[in-house]
Amino acid sequence: MQLAVLCAVCLLPGGLALPLPPEAGGMSELQWEQAQRYLKKFYPYDSKSRDVNSLRAKLKEMQQFFHLPITGMLSSDIIKIIQKPRCGVPDVAEYSLFPDRPKWTSKVVTYKVISYTRDLSHFKVNQLVDKAFAMWSKEIPLQFKRIRVGIADIMIGFARGAHGDSFPFDGPGNTLAHAFAPGPGLGGDAHFDEDERWTDGTSIGINFLFAVTHELGHSLGLGHSSDPNAVMYPTYEARDAKDFKLSQDDIEGIQKLYGNIYDFKKE
Ligand SMILES: [Ca+2]
Ligand SMILES: [Zn+2]
Ligand SMILES: [Zn+2]
């Protein structure tokens, strides 16, 4: 599938206090272990540069993504990023490895909400999902249609822990959601961690509109953006709900895949 292959958790032999490698940058053992797990999960592809030290290469990739000095060593800046809640999709999209970036080829793409959160009413979830789709469809010649029965291209749902796709959620915090790039089966589907506290912006928690707009970007074929203003930025930051909209970077990305809606209308 288009989502990353998650690696098994890497554990050091218990009780054996190994000296930390220079890449640990003088951080604590706990932080170094946290960083290793994070790098393996969100930077899963081994770089072509046969760097024997793949963790150093991954650290460099991460530093490049987040516009940090590229040292290949752990730093407090990285620790700060690691501790933020975020999307479960890696920062190096798998599709960028293939010449054919997956996208929907039909003009109408169907979607369906298959399970709900206890935190918001069904009505509210449906309304916010519609709103998120509208934000994307405004920019591209693609229509989205909600269906109530049968299998939709994009199946949207909430689940906790293991939920049938080999990318189990991790309890409150950390990974908030993930989605699959366009394709059959799981392709296009978007999953939200029911162990988060979801909100429509009227209370404390993770703003569902922000999260679903981001995940639908993946469902349409976008990877993560390193532009902090982009909806497709990988970490979650509470934003002003009133001004929430796609950034220029998101719009350019999605139009690169599907073209501009105005060009389409002229035809
Ligand atoms: Ca979580
Ligand atoms: Zn994401
Ligand atoms: Zn899932």
Question: What does it look like?
Answer:
One of its GO terms (molecular function) is zinc ion binding. Belongs to the peptidase M10A family. The chain has 267 residues and is of the alpha/beta class. The chain has helices at 29-42, 54-65, 76-82, 122-137, 208-220, 248-258, 261-266; strands spanning 86-87, 108-113, 143-146, 154-159, 175-179, 190-193, 198-199, 206-207. The strands form two sheets. It has a six-stranded mixed β-sheet, with helices on one face. Helix 4 (122-137) links the parallel strand 2 and strand 3. Helix 4 crosses helix 5 (208-220). The longest helix is centred in the middle third of the chain and has 16 residues, at 122-137. Residues 4-15 have low confidence and may be disordered. The chain binds calcium ion and zinc ion (2 copies).
